[in-house]
Amino acid sequence: GREQFHGLGSMYCRGAAAVILTYDVNSLQSLTELEDRFLALTDTASADCIFAIVGNKVDLTDDCALSPETEEENRPEKPLASGGSTKVRKQVRAEDAIALYKKILKYKMLDEKDVPAAEKMCFETSAKTGYKVDYLFETVFEMVVPIIVRQKAEGPQQTVDITDYKPAKRTKSGCCA
């Protein structure tokens, strides 16, 4: 079913100030497909777009790979056990997500020193339990708001004022003139 919506992606990325690319931490194939299918969709995003790579479904894993600094920030939000189901070993490591982030930068011809660090833009979350979801959106939001404010101050207005409409003058000539 995913194939039928694949063509719509570039429409949703057009002019985007942020793109959040999500994969399943329990499926290396999902990270590969993310790169293969959606990397080109970022072409329509704004030039200074922020990219976040998000591994989802950490609630299903037997470990929750947290870096020491993010563990301190998110200590109250421990992932909840999912109803007695067996935990699985993660197939996608944080290093794999960081490598994808760096590929995006290379693809977009962005210099690593001009964009947020890969370690800051790769997240592991659980949509089911809410684990680190707020942290993800707060981080992206803090980076995107200044970009949007700057774009509005620098660029032309993105909307058309229909009250300025002036109808074209009509001529009395025939069908082809």
From TrEMBL:
Ranges in coiled-coil conformation: none
Keyword check for Nucleotide-binding: yes
Domain of life: Eukaryota
Region (Disordered): 67-86
Pfam (any one): Ras
Molecular-function GO terms, alphabetical: GTP binding; GTPase activity
Key words, A-Z: GTP-binding, Nucleotide-binding
SUPFAM superfamilies xref list: P-loop containing nucleoside triphosphate hydrolases
Family: Belongs to the small GTPase superfamily. Rab family.
Protein name stated in the entry: Ras-related protein Rab-20
Source organism per UniProt: Tinamus guttatus (White-throated tinamou)
